[in-house]
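Hi everyone, sorry if this is the wrong subforum. Our group has a chain we'd like a structural model of before ordering constructs, and none of us has done structure prediction before. Sequence below.
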Amino acid sequence: MAKKTESEAIANQLSFAVKELSRVAERLRQAGYAEISDEIQTLANSGSFFADEFARLSRERAG
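Answer:
Right subforum, don't worry. Here is the predicted structure as tokens:
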């Protein structure tokens, strides 16, 4: 059970980080920094992919 809770905590942290990176990218875009905004959004998208993969692997291991 502790392993599941740990996995869930990691998944939640990854999800939070992705959302925050997306928000930063949007604020930078609104401030006129489109190029760096695109780079940060790409980072957020990569983070989202890894978060999804982590969640999938965690589910496979759990059951």
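For your construct planning: The first helix runs from residue 2 to 30. Helices lie at 2-30, 34-62.
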